[in-house]
């Protein structure tokens, strides 16, 4: 573990950088903001559940007002951070790494993954990873936009209508959260199974 | 729990509200659940739900007030719906039980006016009923998340404020209610065309549970900003918060 002692956060190391500095910073800010949003979102959900279940009462905030305060504070961190990530990502054409996604490749890599023959090169995404990362980025866009639609159904009326109205937007917001939580579970398991991927997201390579 | 005759109380309540406000707003509002409270005691850590985060969250909430005021378009109307879309039965919601809703004596009722208003003569219910009225079928959205469509009839608040010579450049309109509830709103929302002094619900005289004799209905704000059983109205330049606002709900709470 001696190499983890000198974290190269500057990205100026001699080794090939897998994740540039802006990706690593926005990734961890996003991780924190996302956890706060999910925890406080569960608290808000509990005040008027969409389904016959509630989340643990210990969800962030303690009660509805606390949950709302956390949610409407972390949303700025989440949104501004996401805008930085998307802007730099688009400008630097980094998102090109995620395309193209061919159905044949996805089927092949999925088969390879389950038979343990998948290439573990963390510098390159396989087709399944590409598909999942594109899907989660789009889900991120949907959860933010549906959130604004619920927050401002009068001032941002057109946005709310896009989701089929106020009540429908709540369901969209909920299901987007469910997708993100599922992703989060798989994502963390994969990171633990392939520690060098976690290392790359900390020191860049 | 009958609470009667708001006449004298209203004026006093408004005075109290205007006086007490800043200190009221300083109160802590992040309530810990038992388990979280125990955790805080055990670890000595108050970062998640303690006074430190509370101060920071309050600041962000004030920032959210500011940004919502800028986002507010005074000419943008909330959607209106056909009769067929009305939610029946309409949900009762308050911080007290339906049986505890205050019984306001309609003969003794006077709407007290205070603050930056030219003519502070109190208004009887008959005088209020004589104002030109409009009907709206709009969606009430609760801070809890649920929503319901209802039909409200009454006088636009902005017409009333002009009629009594209110200072329309003042910052706030504060409402005092028979049961002790209070709420305050920004002047642009008070002057919004759909902000209404409501006397009827679904074509009938406003029932007790929905705020007899008068509710302030504003489809551009969350439900808790729509006070029921209103007995006093003040036009002010100082921030007065409100029942739920003092307990942590965002003050502007615009839709």
Model description:
By secondary structure, chain A is mostly helical. Chain A has two domains: 17-73, no CATH class; 93-205. Helix content of chain A is 66%, strand content 0%. Chain B has 255 residues and is an alpha+beta fold. Chain B folds into two domains: 7-25 and 76-247, Oxidoreductase, molybdopterin-binding domain (Sulfite Oxidase, Chain A, domain 2), CATH 3.90.420.10; 31-71. Helix content of chain B is 26%, strand content 20%. Chain B is built from six helices and nine strands. Chain B has helices at residues 7-25, 34-43, 51-71, 125-129, 157-163, 187-190; strands at 112-115, 134-141, 147-156, 172-177, 182-186, 196-201, 204-205, 215-217, 230-236. In chain B, the strands form two sheets. In chain B, strands 2, 3, 6, 7 and 8 form a five-stranded antiparallel sheet that branches. A four-stranded mixed sheet of chain B has the order 1-9-4-5. In chain B, β2 (134-141) and β3 (147-156) form a beta hairpin. The radius of gyration of chain B is 19 Å and the shape is globular. At the A-B interface, α1, α2 and α6 of A face α3 of B.
Q: In short, what is this structure?
A:
The complex is a heterodimer of chains A (205) and B (255). Chain A has 205 residues and is mainly alpha-helical.
Helix-strand layout with pairing:
The complex is a heterodimer of chains A (205) and B (255).
Chain A: H1 21-47, H2 64-91, H3 103-114, H4 127-151, H5 157-162, H6 166-193, H7 195-203
Helix pairs in contact in A: 1-2, 4-6, 6-7
Chain B: H1 7-25, H2 34-43, H3 51-71, E1 112-115, H4 125-129, E2 134-141, E3 147-156, H5 157-163, E4 172-177, E5 182-186, H6 187-190, E6 196-201, E7 204-205, E8 215-217, E9 230-236
Parallel strand pairs in B: 1-9
Antiparallel strand pairs in B: 2-3, 3-6, 4-5, 4-9, 6-7, 6-8
Number of strands of chain A: 0
Overall 3D form of chain B: globular
- What kind of sheet is the major sheet of chain A? none
Radius of gyration of chain B: 19 Å
**CATH superfamily membership of the largest domain in chain B:** Oxidoreductase, molybdopterin-binding domain
Quaternary status of these chains? heterodimer
Largest interface, Cβ cutoff 8 Å: A-B, 27 and 39 residues
Structural class of chain B: alpha+beta
Query: Helical residue percent of chain B?
Result: 25-40%
**Total of helices of chain B:** 6
Beginning-to-end CA distance, first to last residue of chain B: 34 Å
